[in-house]
Every structure is written in C-alpha cells, then in structure tokens.
Amino acid sequence: HCHEDFLIVHYGVAFAGTQITAKLTGCFLYCILAVILRASINDLGPMRDSAVKLLEARRNRVLQVLTQKITEGLTGGGSNYKDFAGYARQAREVEAGEWSSIGHFRTSMATIAAAA
C-alpha cells in the first residue's frame, strides 16, 4: 500500500503545492492508517470458515495418501514389481540380459508405430 500513498501524495490535489515535509507526513500517515484499518478488519471476523477448513483437511489427506503411495512405490512396500515384469514390451530381453538387442527409445517407438 505504500506505493499508492506516494502516488496519492505526489499527484493528488490535496497535497498540490505543499512542502516535502508535508508530503512525507502524508505518506507516513497513509501507511499507518492502512495498517490500522487492515488489522481492525482482520479482527472483526474470521478469515477462514468451515468450508476452507474442510478443503484444507482434504488437501492434506490427499497429500498424505500420495506421499504414502509414492513411498511404497519407491521402497517396494506395495506390489511386487516382478508381478508386472512379464507385461513389459521387451521383458524377455531384459530377463535374459540381452541389452544390445533392445533398441533406442526412438527406434522402439517407430517400430511400434509401424506395427500398429
């Protein structure tokens, strides 16, 4: 708000032709008034109602569940990765260790696209 007080004091009609001390005093008083008004308005009513609290609780729960699932995925605490190994496109080559027979990502995708 303090940048607004400079504009009001510098270009406003109320301070036209006044000395710099009067303009600085006007800026200072405007800032003080803005802080007092904001504090009094914040004290009059609650800033958060029950809907906001509910949304915050839901968001925190979603974050908690996502963090748990990600941790399970990273640590292997969830499903066993070997259960899904046979579903990979080149699972046989990976299991056999035939790394040179597995193509580059772009060539693999081009081969899949051509086959479709």
Properties at a glance:
mainly alpha, single chain, 116 residues
Would you give an account of this structure?
The protein is mainly alpha-helical. Helix content is 67%, strand content 0%. The longest helix is centred in the middle third of the chain and has 26 residues, at 50-75. It is elongated, with a radius of gyration of 33 Å. It starts with a helix and ends with a helix. The mean pLDDT is 76.
Rg (C-alpha, Å) = 33 Å
State the end-to-end distance. 62 Å
How many DSSP helices? 5
Query: What is the overall shape?
Result: elongated
> What can be said about the biggest beta sheet?
none
Helicity, as a percent range: 55-70%
Low-confidence residue ranges: none
Strand content: under 5%
From N to C, what is the helix and strand string? HHHHH
By DSSP, the count of extended strands is 0
- Class based on secondary structure composition and strand pairing: mainly alpha
State mean pLDDT (0 to 100 scale): 76
Task: Give me a quick take on this structure.
The chain contains five helices and no strands. The chain has 116 residues and is mostly helical. Helix 1 crosses helix 2.
Write the layout of secondary structure elements.
Layout: H1 2-11, H2 20-44, H3 50-75, H4 91-96, H5 105-115
Helix pairs in contact: 1-2
